[in-house]
């Protein structure tokens, strides 16, 4: 392993131990936070009991749907806009300021429209992720070196084969950025929506535990989400590294 | 000019879609653009709205100040010290993609209800993107600038103040733009379910009383203000990047 | 290039770059000396890369010395080590009798191949940058900057930003920024590498004028044999990595010279001699980079 990886591992372990110590010595009160070891212990019990499996799968399902539709939708919309320069220039200012719009303020509105079910939650996750994918798709397509397109034409590739064999791999780094943002934003959107107004899912469960002063469950579930998101991120990070290493970057 | 016209056309299309949704979903779900605009005018004329407005934007101001100063300091240090940067970057990226709303109970337990919790929640949303952008900006400064600084006998402070920061400014503004959006989001989420004041509270309150036009008017005004600020930053951003290119 | 006319009279009156009366061409005085300098740095896969040396080199005060060598041979490493931008693994470097050990000593100026002009400053602020950081008083800064702007032919671009200038003009800005610091030893790391052939010739002439005007010692790193042959008093030829000096060629050009000497018979003789020495090394270097280590 690289030195930085070692140090990083030590830093994270050190931080967890520090929290553990602060909680155990009473510097951080039990009403504020429980020691990380108890969080883990409680999480283990919760997972074994299977009480939260329904909520977990529901949230993961929502995230998955939001993520996949954001990536596919963002790629399609990004590609279309890329081929229509005039429309793109018109829409550009809207895309650039899109993330300034406080989405979660729309969420209650969506609940009124769709009712209290999965649809508004998924829609929030999708809305949050799709524009990152659109922007990065266009960036990626912008950066394809002209000489590669010329090479494709010299070799007599048709538009579809050019897209598949040249454009897609060439735009891969930016597409990857888009995909990583889309997964992060889908998680954020879905869990936040559940948190604000929902009757099920992990976000709801945390809010519920909080309102009922059930700190143990609350922290256990928070730990679960943090661990899950970190693992998903690490997976994409490693995958991306592999692809980029081949290109010498 | 044509581009501006095209953008207006696109905005008109958005309003038309909104009107269509209104016809489709009915008054209880979506207020029409006209009604919403009317209600927005009423809100703009009421002192209590401005009270909430001030509350939200002062919380945003404090949170943004913390996020920007803290984020830039972290980013500068990590960008200048290579090993620390390598160690910290994956951690920062993980934190960035974490649904920070899950930390909201923790913030409430530490700060209690009120202004400080909102500010803290806004700041934790904004600080990480600002740090990531700053670090990225510092790391991509051309090595030849550092060499030049050494040849010209610059002290560490001079290096940071007269080379590193000016070189990183365009990226810092990009980071500020992202930081602004997320900080506002954090503040609003904070207000939506743990406050009796602010625009976020106003939205939730309107939901509770099924006052759809007010809810939509507040969201519309919020979006307009946010977009205006963001557009200002975007303009600055493009100008700065243009200068370098 | 009207601005580049050398203002010799002004230089004599002490308004130019030279700090002191010009050295009377006393080629015997050693200005910088490298003894047994070696540089090894850790490689990517745990091994080590032997980049340079051992190198022994003496630069006489006021001479124009060039180093030529195949790409990747350690020319730039040599410059970095002499400038104090990196420390040698072994050996010693003396500049004006004092040890240089990984710190840039005052009195050395460096011009890099990459564009080092700051895009956020105007031409004149770029040139004044080093002086202002050193706390030079404003009147003196103005005086030296105006002079450098005139000398480098940048009069019309005082208030322009680097983004508005061509590559050659930007490199002039960097040279001017170095000059106003009144360095006694000027190191140039392929300063014209990114420029087109005609611009390079003109920049070469400028460099010669500037060298005569300042009386500074110059070490130029280049891969262009004609450039080295045209500009230098003395040329060091470097081997493929690890770079060693394998030949030392004196050109015997008069101090007053410019690019027109390229037409002289001995110019052809010098370049072909250089190529004769370098051909094998270049083949070696190319083979090495083919197998990547």
UniProtKB/TrEMBL annotation, chain A:
Gene3D superfamilies: MetI-like. GO terms for cellular component: plasma membrane. It is a multi-pass membrane protein. Residues 56-236 form the ABC transmembrane type-1 domain. It holds the Pfam family BPD_transp_1. The chain crosses the membrane at residues 63-84, 96-115, 121-141, 182-206, 218-239. InterPro entries: MetI-like, MetI-like_sf. GO terms for biological process: transmembrane transport. SUPFAM superfamilies: MetI-like (SSF161098). It is found in: Cell membrane. Keywords: Cell membrane, Membrane, Transmembrane, Transmembrane helix, Transport. CDD domains: TM_PBP2. Belongs to the binding-protein-dependent transport system permease family. This is ABC transporter permease subunit.
Automatic annotation (TrEMBL), chain B:
CDD domains: TM_PBP2. It is found in: Cell membrane. Pfam families: BPD_transp_1. It is a multi-pass membrane protein. InterPro entries: MetI-like, MetI-like_sf. One of its GO terms (cellular component) is plasma membrane. Residues 53-233 form the ABC transmembrane type-1 domain. The chain crosses the membrane at residues 60-80, 101-121, 127-146, 214-236. SUPFAM superfamilies: MetI-like (SSF161098). One of its GO terms (biological process) is transmembrane transport. Keywords: Cell membrane, Membrane, Transmembrane, Transmembrane helix, Transport. The keyword Secreted does not apply. PANTHER family: ALIPHATIC SULFONATES TRANSPORT PERMEASE PROTEIN SSUC-RELATED, ALKANE SULFONATE ABC TRANSPORTER-RELATED, MEMBRANE SUBUNIT. Belongs to the binding-protein-dependent transport system permease family. This is ABC transporter permease subunit.
């Amino acid at each position: 392993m690289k030195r930085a990886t070692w140090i990083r591992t030590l830093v994270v372990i050190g931080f967890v131990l520090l929290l553990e110590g602060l909680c155990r010595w009473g510097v951080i009160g039990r009403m504020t936070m429980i020691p990380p070891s108890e969080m883990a212990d409680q999480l283990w019990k919760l997972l074994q009991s299977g009480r939260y499996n329904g909520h977990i799968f529901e949230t993961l399902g929502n995230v998955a749907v939001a993520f996949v539709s954001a990536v596919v939708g963002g790629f399609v919309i990004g590609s279309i806009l890329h081929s229509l320069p005039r429309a793109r220039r018109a829409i550009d200012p809207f895309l650039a300021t899109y993330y300034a719009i406080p989405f979660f303020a729309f969420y209650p509105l969506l609940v009124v429209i769709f009712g209290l079910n999965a649809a508004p939650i998924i829609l929030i996750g999708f809305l949050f992720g799709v524009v990152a994918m659109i922007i990065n798709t266009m960036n990626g397509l912008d950066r394809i070196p002209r000489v590669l397109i010329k090479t494709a034409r010299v070799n007599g590739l048709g538009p579809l084969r050019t897209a598949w064999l040249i454009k897609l791999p060439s735009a891969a780094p930016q597409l990857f950025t888009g995909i990583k943002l889309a997964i992060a934003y889908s998680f954020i959107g879905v869990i936040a929506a559940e948190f604000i107004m929902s009757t099920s899912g992990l976000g709801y469960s945390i809010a519920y535990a909080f309102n009922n002063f059930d700190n143990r469950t609350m922290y256990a579930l928070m730990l679960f989400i943090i661990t899950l998101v970190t693992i998903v991120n690490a997976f994409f990070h490693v995958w991306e590294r592999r692809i980029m290493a081949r290109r010498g970057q | 000019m044509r581009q501006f016209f095209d953008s207006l056309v696109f905005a008109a299309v958005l309003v038309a879609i909104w009107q269509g949704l209104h016809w489709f979903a009915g008054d209880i779900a979506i207020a029409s653009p006209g009604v919403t605009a009317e209600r927005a005018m009423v809100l703009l004329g009421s002192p209590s709205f401005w009270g909430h407005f001030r509350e939200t934007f002062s919380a945003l101001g404090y949170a943004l100040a913390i996020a920007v100063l803290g984020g830039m300091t972290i980013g500068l240090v990590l960008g200048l010290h290579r090993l620390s940067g390598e160690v910290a970057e994956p951690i920062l990226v993980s934190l960035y993609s974490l649904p920070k709303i899950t930390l909201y109970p923790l913030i409430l337990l530490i700060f209690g209800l009120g202004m400080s919790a909102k500010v803290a929640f806004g700041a934790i949303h904004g600080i990480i993107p600002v740090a990531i952008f700053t670090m990225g900006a510092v790391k991509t400064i051309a090595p030849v600038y550092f060499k030049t600084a050494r040849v010209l006998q610059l002290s560490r402070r001079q290096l940071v103040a007269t080379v590193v920061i000016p070189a990183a400014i365009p990226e810092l503004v990009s980071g500020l733009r992202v930081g602004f959006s997320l900080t506002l989001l954090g503040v609003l989420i904070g207000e939506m379910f743990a406050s009796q004041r602010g625009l976020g509270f106003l939205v939730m309150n309107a939901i509770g009383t099924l006052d759809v036009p007010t809810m939509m008017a507040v969201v519309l005004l919020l979006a307009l203000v946010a977009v205006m600020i963001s557009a200002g930053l975007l303009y600055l951003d493009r100008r700065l990047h243009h200068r370098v290119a | 290039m009207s601005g580049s006319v050398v203002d010799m009279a002004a230089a004599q009156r002490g308004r130019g770059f030279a700090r002191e009366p010009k050295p009377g061409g006393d080629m015997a005085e050693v200005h910088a000396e490298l003894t047994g300098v070696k540089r090894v740095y850790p490689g990517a896969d745990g091994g080590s890369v032997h980049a340079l040396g051992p190198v022994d080199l003496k630069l006489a005060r006021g001479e124009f010395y060039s180093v030529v060598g195949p790409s990747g041979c350690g020319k730039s490493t040599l410059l970095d080590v002499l400038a104090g931008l990196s420390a040698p693994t072994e050996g010693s470097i003396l500049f004006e009798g004092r040890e240089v050990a990984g710190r840039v000593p005052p009195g050395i100026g460096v011009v890099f191949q990459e564009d080092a002009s700051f895009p956020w400053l105007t031409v004149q602020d770029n040139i004044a940058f080093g002086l202002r950081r050193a706390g030079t008083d404003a009147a003196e800064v103005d005086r030296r900057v105006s002079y450098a702007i005139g000398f480098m032919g940048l009069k019309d671009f005082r208030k322009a930003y680097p983004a508005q200038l061509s590559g050659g003009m930007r490199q002039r800005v960097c040279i001017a920024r170095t000059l106003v610091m009144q360095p006694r030893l000027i190191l140039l790391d392929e300063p014209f590498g990114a420029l087109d052939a005609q611009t390079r010739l003109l920049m070469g002439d400028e460099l010669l004028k500037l060298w005569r005007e300042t009386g500074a010692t110059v070490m130029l790193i280049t891969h262009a044999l004609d450039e080295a042959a045209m500009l230098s008093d003395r040329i060091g030829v470097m081997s493929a990595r690890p770079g060693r000096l394998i030949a030392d060629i004196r050109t015997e050009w008069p101090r007053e010279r410019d690019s027109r000497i390229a037409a002289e018979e001995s110019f052809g003789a010098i370049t072909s001699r250089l190529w004769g020495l370098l051909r094998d090394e270049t083949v070696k270097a190319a083979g090495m980079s083919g197998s990547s280590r």
